[in-house]
Amino acid sequence: MTTWPSGTKAGTSNLDSGTDKPRLARPDIKQNVDNVNDIIDYFNGGGPITSTGDQISFNKGYKENINTLTSSTGITVDGNTASVHAVYLEHTTTFTMSNMTQGQSVSIIVTQDSTGNRTATFTNVKFPAGAVNTLSTGSNDIDIVNIFFDGNNLYGTVLRDFT
Question: Which of 101, 142, 144, 155 could form an S-S bond across to 159 if both were Cys, CB 3.0 to 4.6 Å?
Fold first, then answer.
């Protein structure tokens, strides 16, 4: 099996109407068949992702892109942009989630600036009763805020002080 996608596309110049030359098109047809077979092999377990019934398995590690947010007094976290966001917090701010779909979660890595003492509120996010839902405020402290959307509510947790 070749690595898919191979980047090799079959031409259609010998199959254009009015000038069809089927004999000359055979290599292009074979390339198309090979490409289709590679796709089938890939999704039948030959690639890093397999599916069985309604379950998807990753046969290799996967990587999430980290979207850098700009510090301001109001920060919008767009669920369509990435599932992991990071901000170097230079302001007391309000985080607002946008474009979250049912079953989606986002993580926000919040790093206090060298001054510290920056606080944050999270619009419409429910935190567990009795749990600490504030950021650590030391100079250069790092917190991770995880937010999950069930289709109706945003639920959050704060993992504090990774310094």
Answer: 144
Coil, strand or helix at 96:
strand
On the 0-12 / 13-18 / 19+ scale of CB atoms within 10 A, 106 is buried
Tell me the per-residue pLDDT of 3-62, one tens digit each, with 9 for 90 and over. Answer: 545 555 556 565 555 566 666 767 777 887 887 877 777 666 666 777 777 777 777 777
Structural contact between residues 64 and 91, judged by C-beta atoms closer than 8 angstroms:
no
- Token pair for 64: 């999430």
Number of H helices, E strands in the chain: 1, 11
List the structure tokens of 156: 């959050």
In the three-class reduction of DSSP (H, G, I as helix; E, B as strand; rest coil), residue 33 is classed as helix
The two tokens of residue 91 are 């302001």
Euclidean distance between CA atoms 58 and 50, whole angstroms: 7
Give residue limits of the domains in the chain: 13-58, 66-159
pTM: 0.69
Q: C-alpha angle with apex 88: 83 to 93, nearest 5 degrees?
A: 85
- Cα first-last separation, the chain: 47
What's the rounded Cα separation, in Å, for the pair 94 and 122? 6
